[in-house]
Amino acid sequence: MGGDRDTAAFKGFRRTYVGAVPGKIVRALKTVEVENPVILIDEVDKIGQRSQQGDPGSVLLEILDPDQNNKFTDDYLDVPIDLSKVLFLCTANNLDTLHPAVLDRMEIIEVGGYTFDEKKHILDEYLIPEALKKTGLKPEHKFDLPEATKDFIIEMYCREPGVRSLKKYINKIFEKVAFKIVEGDNSAMITVDINNVEEFIGSAKYHSSKFYKNMPPGVVIGLAYSSHGGSILYIESSTANNQEYAAGKHGQLKVTGQLGSVMQESSSIALTFARKFILEHFNKDSEASKFLESADIHIHFPEGSTPKDGPSAGITITTALASLALKTPVQPNVGMTGEISLNGKVLPIGGVKEKTMAASREGVKTLIFPKANEKDIQKLPENVKAGITYHFVEDYIDVFKIMFPEI
Q1: SS3 content of the chain, % helix, strand, coil (to 5)
Q2: Parallel, antiparallel, or unpaired for β 190-191 and 229-239?
Q3: Packing angle between helix 314-326 and helix 287-294, nearest 10 degrees?
Q4: For the ranges 52-61, 83-92, 194-203, 397-406, which has the lowest average pLDDT?
Q5: 325 vs 28, 283, 341, CA distance in Å?
Q6: From the centroid of its chain, how far is CA 294?
Q7: Domain 219-403 carries which CATH code?
Q8: CATH of domain 116-201
Q9: At residue 243, does pLDDT exceed 70?
Q10: Catalytic annotation, residues
Q11: The pTM is what?
């Protein structure tokens, strides 16, 4: 239903129109010829918004509500139709565009992305046999795709939750291998290794997000999540003009990195709490306290072309500000995520699985999560949690003790 802007797509056209047809719901029932089928409404979050032709999203209220869909009326047939026995399945990438009243009529099932091991299994058991069948390659043909190359492709080309791009790249590799065999000498072994894989599928789509070998003061590793999976995210803080700020005249906050309104608010909350925290735990006449009160601070989230929003960077921004004020680097290879309140409470976040996988991929083996997310960590597969040390915190003071053990 992606892109449909007309309610007639669901409810049909009245017979007074030329070329009138029933809606897709009635046509689906006509196709299956039973009254209790499974009907899949794909990409329900991409249904067009309200227009001159009505609001197709609102028609879902009538279709999905079990209290009224036993008398659904198609405008073409103009008779009540019982949809109460139909099982509707709707797919969506993002629930934010759906009306809350529509969501209220649904049972929401969150489907997480594939782990590295799951992608590897799908690749070996399904994608490679399918690619071999399509290209006509046989065991007697001399070619090799080592396990290390498979791992490299998954890590550097296919980090999204699904396997669509993995299928595309594997098909491209086997098509080019088949072409080389057809046009060349079959006696030579064709090996697709890490060094020559770019000849088959181009440059790597992803690169390591770790670009700091030694963490300077004011820089902290955060964990980010989007519909495309998880990633680590450096949060940098600095002063823009040391001469003016040394004079203690300003105390303004500037935040950059294509951020949404929620992240802007998180940065403001983090600065307010950081000032309060440093003042309470250090002498009010200390250099750190004076710095946060008077200095103009610039917080930047690298990869500015990527939109970012959400509250989960709260404790990360606070730690970056504390590190900048104290002129002390944080503990290396420690990632964190959690919303922070004005009084330093660490609140739960989402995307636990994706953030953990991203940290593990980048070699960040110590993670700080809100205490409320401990049950989510326990539900993760063991291979996702392997080798990672977790700290669960309720108040920011716990985060501070982990990141600055010597202070």
Answers
A1: 40, 15, 40
A2: unpaired
A3: 120
A4: 52-61
A5: 64, 13, 20
A6: 37
A7: 3.30.230.10
A8: 1.10.8.60
A9: no
A10: 312, 355
A11: 0.76
